[in-house]
Amino acid sequence: MPTAQPFGRIPPQTVSLFQSAIATLRDQVLPALPHEASATVRAFTLEQLVSVVLRDWAENDNTDGLQPKDIGDLKSFIQLAVSVAEPDLSGDGFPIYQATLTSLLQDWLDNWNAHGDDGPPRR
User: Whole-structure pTM over 0.90, yes or no?
Assistant: First the structure.
């Protein structure tokens, strides 16, 4: 009789990939936010990061997890979005931050990290 999996038919490798990616996002990417960023900004950022990484797994068949260049890219996107949204990241700057980060992450998914692409577009 096969051993029951804790998440039904989801392969243990997938569970491990997701857990590893989320830990990396929390520990290595999210700290790119300024210390004074609000809980709302942090929650939005983490949700966007997790969403794009899971979409990368589903759409680009990325089963290798986040590589150092990916971590660097994601941190840079946060830093750029913060820089254009300042000085008030939680007030009037928050929608600017949201739109900028969301757009950068979508571009990363579509053009920087898609299967067969070797990195950032040369624009």
Answer: no
